[in-house]
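Structure first, sequence second, as always.
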């Protein structure tokens, strides 16, 4: 993944999270303890860490995402817990967007199934 692509992903994720939070506030669905309530913009450095964690998780399977942050001495992975909290990882995972492009909806003329990830 290039530096430019990471910049695009970071901006798109922040834009999506901002829009999602505003939408939830307007509709009265923003709960006090939801991940989006505590959202703060992701930085490029943090996005790189998040992507590194995703790659690592693809190579080493656990039963659940929270298992990567286990404090059990047998399962404990020091660098994972030092990289970011499980709660922040889950928030980024929920808000992750690869592009801010508006795409044509499925079934509409001009629909492109790869539109959100096409360069």
């Amino acid at each position: 993944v290039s530096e430019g692509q990471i910049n695009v992903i970071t901006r798109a994720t922040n834009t999506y999270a901002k829009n999602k939070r505003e939408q939830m506030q307007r509709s009265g669905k923003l709960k006090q303890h939801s991940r989006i309530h505590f959202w703060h913009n992701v930085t490029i450095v943090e996005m790189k860490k998040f992507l590194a964690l995703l790659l690592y998780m693809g190579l080493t399977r656990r039963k659940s995402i929270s298992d990567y942050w286990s404090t059990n001495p047998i399962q404990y992975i020091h660098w994972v817990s030092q990289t970011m909290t499980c709660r922040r990882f889950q928030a980024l995972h929920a808000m992750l967007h690869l592009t801010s492009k508006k795409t044509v909806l499925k079934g509409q003329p001009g629909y492109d199934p790869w539109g959100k990830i096409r360069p």
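Margin note: Residues 3-95 form one domain.
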